[in-house]
Amino acid sequence: MANKPFGILSPTYGIKQDFPSILLKDAYLPDALDDIKNIWFVDGEIQSVRKRTQEFAQTLPDPILFWEQFWKKDQSFFMIGATKRDIFYRDATNNRMQYLTPKYNTGLAQFTNGDATVVGSGGADFTNLKAGDFITIGTTYSTADTWYVVSSVTDATHLELTAVYAGTTTAAVAYQARKTYTGTATDWWEAVTYDDQFIMTNGVDNMQAWGGTNQFAVLGGSPPKLKHIVVYENYIVGGGTSSEPYTYFWCALGDETNWSTGDSGSAELDDYYVINKAAKLGGFLILLTERTLEKIWLVGGDLVFNRKRITDDCGAWAPRSVVITNSALYFYAADNTFRCYTGMTWESVSDVFKKYIKDINPEYEKSITGTYIEEHEVILWAIPNATSTGRNNQVVVYDLKAPIEIDNWSKFDMEVLAFGFYEVEDSVTWDTWEFTTWDSITWDKWDTRTGTEGAPRELCTDYSGDTFRLFASETDDGAAYDRMFVLATDLTENKRGMNYVKRLTKMRCIFRNEDAGTVDVYIKRDYESSWQSIGSISLDGFF
Fold it and tell me: Which of 95, 135, 245, 397 would you call most buried, defined as having the most Cβ atoms within 10 angstroms of its Cβ?
């Protein structure tokens, strides 16, 4: 007897032979470590995660730890970046980074070809510099210049470079020297905008302030060297100093340069828990320590702030994992979970993905960093998995659009040191379009909002000093990469097994047409240990 097709009960259309009873979202099965790779579930489709393209051509001498926009009251803005040694802004007009690191350029300097010694004159005093600072010839102060690293300072008029000067011998000429910061690769910068200034701190150097001209300078008033800062009720509040990591401090009301008089002050946390982040939520200031959540609010008078401990069994173990959305705080906690604090509860959101979360390398887990991408309504966390040697080598994605379940999570392979964000400065025109052929277009459509002034662009940095745009290419910085996902083959919701034998007699695969690429299809019965190939599908529309 010939095979006879049978009807399938559709969720919406009754009996149909060609309509499945299980939707794609219910068949999607990303709960095992090896079941997904560079894939996420978006808008009812299983989609490949687009990866990185280099956003800025300039490579800094150190990895970039920080990117953020500084908006001034007149609505002008600067895109501020920082490494462990430098602060700079992106000079889009001249396609370079303009250093904002404090500089020294008094007097003149003579450079000799093939010689590592620089000779000062005309009032130069090289004792203002130190080993690790940079020096260059000329009057500009950007990544377009050729910089030499100071090896040592001999005296007021002599210093040594780490490499011999390779240019033409000069007479005494104008020079620029960058007086670099002293933090390490794990002394992360944080910043706030206050009184039309961009104020930055790394917990090691003196707090820095910049108003939009000249260079960053030490913030007046001798504030403590805070690791974490936030603006709350017109105070700068922060904590995490190296000597008192459990104490939070605040400046006087409306005066960022007053940390010792007026209503400025400080307070210690009970049990001396280390402060790992300060953030605002629901009108309150939230201090996240390694083990606790602390709620703080303004009361004025001699007390200034009141405080209440929310919980002492949950805190932000990784400082940079804290992600702030419109309604909650998310963070990586000491119990190997990602948690959500709503102002009322602090429940785990990662239990359904715990087999993978438990694989995070405990030696490097404090380096976990996160970002909220409002456009996609997802949170990305760059994590070090079990194979990491110190780098965040994978990214996990938490989707905020659906209830807490397996399908909220995905992961992809990519090294990320830090995340960033900025808005497109000028609308793209035909003359400034970044694509050279139709096949190279990575946009969904040629007139997408991505090319419009003000459109958001998500950034990430790597461990080599480069900055990339996220979700921008079918390659990862020019390199091809694989994707993989697994579908459940049972015909029941929630991936429940059926109590009778199943046979797969026909498979229909529907993919969006692409310029190139191949999908390899494998099948495995419930208890088999290996996959069997059943064929390949070309994504260019030809078989």
Answer: 135
Distance separating the N- and C-terminal Cα atoms of the chain = 32
Q: Which two tokens stand for residue 328?
A: 């909650």
pLDDT greater at residue 46 or residue 520:
520
Structure tokens at 157: 């008029």
Instruction: Give Cα 442 to chain centroid, integer Å.
Output: 22
Cα gap 132→142, rounded to integer Å: 17
CA distance 483 to 536: 14
Query: Does the pLDDT value for residue 332 go beyond 90?
Result: yes
What's the mean per-residue pLDDT of the chain? 87
Give the max Cα distance, the chain: 104
CA distance 473 to 48: 10
* Residue 510: partners with Cβ closer than 8 Å, 6 or more residues away: none
Owner of token pair 């009301």: 253
pLDDT at 448: 61
CA gap 309, 501 in Å, rounded: 56
Structure confidence at residue 254 (pLDDT): 96
What percentage of the chain has pLDDT greater than the value 70?
84
Who contacts 448 (Cβ-Cβ below 8 Å, separation ≥6)? Answer: none
Task: Please count the other Cβ atoms lying within 10 Å of the Cβ belonging to residue 497.
Answer: 10
Specify the pLDDT at position 304.
96
